[in-house]
Known about the structure:
Layout: H1 2-25, H2 44-50, E1 54-63, H3 74-84, E2 110-121, E3 127-130, H4 132-135, E4 140-144, E5 150-159, E6 164-168, E7 178-179, E8 190-195, E9 203-214, E10 222-225, E11 237-240, E12 244-252, E13 263-267, H5 268-281, E14 287-288, E15 291-295, H6 298-303, E16 312-317, H7 322-326, E17 333-337, E18 340-341, H8 347-353, E19 360-367, E20 370-377, E21 379-380, H9 404-409, E22 411-415, H10 418-424, E23 430-435, H11 437-441, E24 449-453, E25 456-457, H12 461-470, E26 477-483, E27 486-492
Parallel strand pairs: 7-12
Antiparallel strand pairs: 1-2, 1-4, 2-3, 3-6, 4-5, 5-6, 8-9, 8-11, 9-10, 10-13, 11-12, 12-13, 14-21, 15-16, 16-17, 17-18, 17-19, 19-20, 22-23, 23-24, 24-25, 24-26, 26-27
Amino acid sequence: MIFKVEGHKLRSGLLAFALALTASATFVPVQSAHAQTRTLPDFTDLVDQVGPSVVNIRTVEKVTPRAGNGEMDEEMQEFFRRFFGQPIPGQPGQPRQGPTPKRPQQPQEEERPRGVGSGFILTADGYVMTNAHVVEDASEVLVTLPDKREFKAKIVGADKRTDVAVVKIEASGLPAVKVGDISKLRVGEWVMAIGSPFGLENTVTAGIVSAKQRDTGEYLPFIQTDVAINPGNSGGPLINMRGEVVGINSQIYSRSGGFMGISFSIPIDEAIRVSDQLRTSGRVSRGRIGVQIDQVTKDVAEAIGLGKAQGALVRGVEAGSPGEKAGVEPGDVITKFDGKAIEKPSDLPRLVGNTKPGTKSTLTVFRRGASRDLSVTIAEIEPDKPAKRAADRDEPAPKPPASAAAKSLGLAVSDLTDAQKKELKIKGGVKVDAANEGAARAGLREGDIILAVGNAEVANTKEFESAVGKADKSKALSVLFRRGDWAQYALIRPAR
């Protein structure tokens, strides 16, 4: 009985509590402590803020029209002969009717519209930044402001390597953009672009940052976004949510010529560095050290004791270059430049290129299992020169029988003559007379010069045999070899 009474009271109490809870829920929403309320961004204020600084750029080029010779081609003459039964008067070999026409004058150059692009006002006194390809080969550049004022612009300078150009219009009190800090740009944040796609001025598009430091083979690492960029957007600004320019819209990935969801922008810090030089001297001065580089693969890194696949593998060193004077050798792996790590080969030319010519810098190279620092004086970059190919002009000598050590790798090697060493500018090495089995699979071939086996330099066949004899036969053997002017590594794997 007591149980029933208490049970009845308990049920009544639970019912009252439930009703009270329901009533309170009407006024106090239940929400997780970690829940966050986020809304889609509103770009209207940004458009009002940055829009007046974005300009439309039209270019004109002078062309010489093709002069007609007044004579009909053979196919057209044959057409008239077949369907009209007679040749056309005035053609070669036919009597002319009427007065003899005057000799046509030399065609004159005429101006034709070349293209449409975008740009943005960099300074209040009329400096405008855009892409180099927007103003390339233009005889006249016309800049139209959002208030419809139009100016003829002077090209201050253009740099094809970074695709950055600066033009100047004669105006003052212009609304200049704010330049953002690229180091604070994060993947996933919202960004906006303003430009003139297909000539449609003041078009606004938006998206997010898809990636940073995107290497597309160009001189600069790009910002990748999914902002809609189309022809005509080139040179326009990429803007963050604080109204700051963080990039210049430059390229798109497209199979159709239109937007496909992948756009690339030049980081604004790199663009400003270039524009400062263009405004000062009209050109960009870059550093060089005169080495040809390649990627370090994971297998090569492990085989030579580097561990991690990083740095830039030196395949060749130009004669008389800063690299040669500093002691850089083919086969070195450059891991640092002035203390900054080289994660991939493209990092090196960017760091060196941004260094003022004449500066003394430090290269950290990995050679024969150890790191060392080399002092190098940066030179100014020169136009690319075609790679030279070294030819062996010595008369072929009888090939000695392959040693047991060489045979185990599928190789037959011989000593170099003094003349060959002098021509190749090397102190030692062995020449590959034949490459079979493992050596052939590794990419070695007749005529290659082997400079090192493992991490041991080989000056002659005796040292080559000794190095091969000491190597672990169960592991892949790294071989540094030279082919023409280029040096690279090969991994000869043990036979299974």
